[in-house]
Amino acid sequence: MSPHRTPPRAGTDAPAIEVRGLTKRYTQGGDTVKQAVDGLDLTVERGEIFAVLGPNGAGKTTTVEILEGFRRRDGGQVQVLGEDPALAGRAWRSRIGVVLQDSRDQAELTVRELVHHFATFYPAARDPDEVIAAVGLLEKATTRSRQLSGGQRRRLDVALGIVGDPELLFLDEPTTGFDPQARRSFWDLVLALREGGTTILLTTHYLDEAAHLADRAAVVRDGRIVALGAPADLGGPDALRPVVQWVSDGVTHAERTDHPTALVSSLAARLAGPDGEVPGLRVLQPSLEDVYLGLIGATPTTPSLGAGAPDLPDLPAPTDPSHHAADAAVTEEASR
Ligand SMILES: Nc1ncnc2c1ncn2[C@@H]1O[C@H](COP(=O)(O)OP(=O)(O)OP(=O)(O)O)[C@@H](O)[C@H]1O
């Protein structure tokens, strides 16, 4: 896709999204059944791709739906493109694009009919046929939406999300169910949108997706951000350093080091048995996936490290759950 909008100059614009102390709880019969968002702070700069990572039920979709204006919050401040989504009107809505997790409406309309129809909702829409080409659906332009494959349907969702030429695009788990080739070309599309000046907030379960696309990523767990930064920096500067693990006197030891060869040599000199081996010796290279799994509490922060790994520094603790500014609890469904 050719560049469409002049990318904003860094530092000259207010952030696209600013969230402070966001809270949201789901209630039933007056009782809180789930504190879905629990004091979340977030800033997304204009022109960046920002990824929100986290396990099922972490609060990603709830947060994004609040930012999109589809769901009410209980507490906190939210500004999206300079307005509060809970109060913003049609003009604001025409400046954002939304690709929801799942959409199956208008099944009888063709791709071309749908994209042209959606274009009429916006004051300065893109050329619908250019958009269809950009998402790789030219050959399916006359196919009814219900006859598309899952990946093609997702591309149509993206076409509908971008035809209004949004300043800010929300992509909720956009590549779930894609084959590897479809994912790659979708990534190219997202990067092209960013080149054209669109700010993009995406939620994803895929760390490789965040690593490939995102300028910055936040890991959400239990409704709070537990790590924030460039994808490669998540977990702090030490997280990706190699770990040497060994067993001595029946106790497992582990040490992060920038010089694993030197450490292994010194262990060999001190601890090697008659067979020349250091008991339990392993040199582990944590992957981004390991770091992420550690942050969401799914596995130890270093691969294959069990309870006997006392020497490793902890990863950042979850942020202080100090924000509970909820006023009135509501039970609701997203009002789309
Ligand atoms: N309408 C609702 N009523 C009650 N609880 C809800 C409702 N919607 C979501 N929840 C709960 O709130 C929590 C956060 O859900 P949310 O959908 O925001 O998580 P998520 O991070 O997007 O998860 P996933 O990755 O599975 O999409 C979950 O425990 C979920 O069960």
UniProtKB/TrEMBL annotation:
Entry-linked SUPFAM superfamilies: P-loop containing nucleoside triphosphate hydrolases
GO cellular component: a single term: plasma membrane
Organism (species): Oerskovia douganii
PROSITE patterns: ABC_TRANSPORTER_1, ABC_TRANSPORTER_2
Superkingdom per UniProt: Bacteria
Membrane-protein topology: Peripheral membrane protein
A molecular function (GO) term: ATP binding
Name listed for the protein in its UniProt record: ABC transporter ATP-binding protein
Major location (coarse): membrane
